[in-house]
Amino acid sequence: MRVFLSVLMLVLISAFAPVGAYAAPKADLWPDWQAHDPDSMQKIDHSGWQAVLDRFVAQPEPGVTTFDYKAALDDRANGIEAVAGYVGKMVTVPVSDLNRNQQLAYWINLYNALTVKVVLDHYPVASIRDIDISPGLFSLGLFSSGPWDKKLITVEGRTLSLNDIEHRILRPIWIDPRIHYAVNCASVGCPALAAEAYDADLLDDQLDQAARDFINHPRAIHGDGDGGFVISSLYDWYREDFGERDAQLVAHLLSYAGPELTRQLDSIGRFDVSDDVYDWSLNDDRP
């Protein structure tokens, strides 16, 4: 009876707890993935992913992109099959033999393509969180519903989930907050899915542009009309990556802010956050 009551309590907690009640996954390095060859000249070809982006990504407004999932299913050869083909090619890459920049571009592009593939495999859905394929019946946490903990691919003999790529490889190895603007979770509230595949030779410029595009859009930060700010939940979930103190977060935002946002942030006496929000609606091109 005691076991049954414990299980029932877990079910009730997971069913009724608010989305923001649990922290996002922590950066937890898997040391094996630190292996790299700084002298490697090998370049990974991401043209297959670029072809998909060219055909199905649109930019309805600055800082925002959408993906036409229906068209990618209707045009199978250039859509879902091309995405699957690119992912299939990437999982055969000997990642440990690459230099750091090639690795970073590799993991970001693979993460984004794998996310699109998961959505296509389950489309139509209103939100990626509806693709509830993660293992663990009673797992709790912000991303416990959705596909993020499902082992989806095998690279160099190790099975990986989306969470593994982001939180065990990308975040702890590179320790760069701009990664949050590059990996896409197929949601309206997420930083935009880049229309250009990440290129090892252009990474700094591309990551800076991704940061500018998101930070200067209202879904990242906007005034609440009462002297405070509403910020993206991204900055709450991963606060340690952007600076635990308010001054550090503001400094990060100012590094990429345009004139209007700079004026707003410079004019405040203190950084007062009244709320954080995130729109989990699918980044589809359909209403």
Short descriptors:
287 residues, mainly alpha, 2 domains, two-stranded antiparallel ribbon, 9% strand
Number of helices: 12
How do the helices and strands follow one another from N- to C-terminus? Answer: HHEEHHHEEHHHEEHHHHE
Specify the biggest β-sheet: 3 strands, mixed
Strand residue content: 5-15%
Spatial separation of the terminal alpha carbons: 48 Å
Q: Over all CA atoms, what is the radius of gyration? A: 19 Å
**Uncertain spans, ≥5 residues at pLDDT below 50?**
2-22
Residues in helices, as a percent range: 40-55%
Characterise this structure.
The chain is mainly alpha-helical and 287 residues long. It folds into two domains: 25-215, no CATH class; 221-277, no CATH class. 43% of the residues lie in helices and 9% in strands. The chain has twelve helices and seven strands. It has helices at residues 2-16, 47-56, 69-74, 80-90, 100-122, 162-174, 179-182, 203-215, 234-237, 239-242, 246-256, 259-266; strands at 57-61, 64-67, 153-155, 158-160, 221-223, 229-232, 273-277. The chain has a three-stranded mixed beta sheet with strand order 5-6-7. It has a two-stranded antiparallel sheet with strand order 1-2. A hairpin with a 5-residue loop joins strand 5 and strand 6. It is globular. It starts with a helix and ends in a 10-residue tail after the last strand. The model is unreliable at 2-22 (pLDDT under 50).
Task: Summarize the structure in short.
43% of the residues lie in helices and 9% in strands.
